[in-house]
Design goal:
Oligomer: single chain
Helix content: over 70%
Strand content: under 5%
Largest sheet: none
Distance between the termini: 52 Å
Shape: globular
Radius of gyration: 18 Å
Length: about 240
């Protein structure tokens, strides 16, 4: 490709949607809490009405100059079995790595981000006991839609289909930078930066080596959906 972005442009395009979305989250969370809904619903709303539209909107603006098919790269066809086995392997690796690094996340959260309000730590299952079952069910279904399907699909088109191929430098550098910036883009969970980079790097390299964004898209949707269902099984049965 000859339409590479500069490093500065790449950094802005990677981080800006997450920064704006996190600002919306911080502003919305107190309002949701005051009305009896958990703060995690605020980030889901921010993801659905701020982050995803920013990413999708930018893609559509770029597509006006050519076409959506031309601006989205890494869609080489693969044997059907690879669409099953490779994402399955990526999901298994993701759960094993994130589980092994979960205590690191907790330590970082407590040591470096203890100044944040309690509601910012959405991984704390105990905090959900204060909300009504109706509020929890509403949050569950919205999260399943936004976090499980809507946002991961748009993120893969944006980060891996559009931004990754336009990063300058050798491919190993490009993948590492893309995954690192994508991990940092999650400003609403900054304590997961290191662990997210570690378990997502193989996902990014799978996309680059196979030249196919759908591998990570399938893994992203499956991983988010399974993680969401498991987490909320704990919350809703308490």
């Amino acid at each position: 490709m000859n339409n590479k972005h500069s490093i500065s442009k790449s950094i802005v395009l990677h981080l800006l949607p997450g920064a704006v979305g996190t600002l919306a989250y911080v502003l919305l969370a107190p309002l949701f809490l005051q009305n009896g809904y958990p703060a995690i619903l605020a980030i889901l709303v921010a993801a659905g009405v701020v982050i995803a539209p920013l990413e999708l909107g930018y893609l559509f603006v770029q597509a006006k100059q050519s076409s959506f098919n031309e601006i989205i790269q890494y869609r080489e066809p693969l044997p059907r079995w690879q669409y099953v086995l490779i994402p399955l392997g990526l999901v298994v690796w993701g759960f094993l790595a994130s589980g092994a690094l979960s205590m690191l996340d907790v330590v970082i959260a407590r040591q470096l981000f203890g100044w944040l309000p309690d509601w910012f730590f959405v991984f704390d299952v105990e905090q959900f006991s204060a909300f009504s079952r109706e509020a929890l069910l509403a949050t569950f279904w919205i999260g399943l839609l936004v976090n499980g399907f809507f946002l991961p699909i748009i993120e893969e088109f944006y980060f891996r289909g559009y931004l990754l191929p336009r990063l300058p430098g050798p491919r190993n550098w490009s993948v590492t930078l893309n995954i690192s910036l994508f991990s940092l883009y999650h400003f609403w969970t900054p304590w997961q930066l290191i662990s997210r980079i570690i378990w997502l790097l193989p996902w990014g390299f799978a996309v680059e080596r196979k030249k196919n964004i759908y591998l990570m898209m399938i893994a992203h949707v499956a991983g988010n959906t399974i993680g969401w269902l498991l987490t909320w099984a704990l919350i809703l049965t308490k």
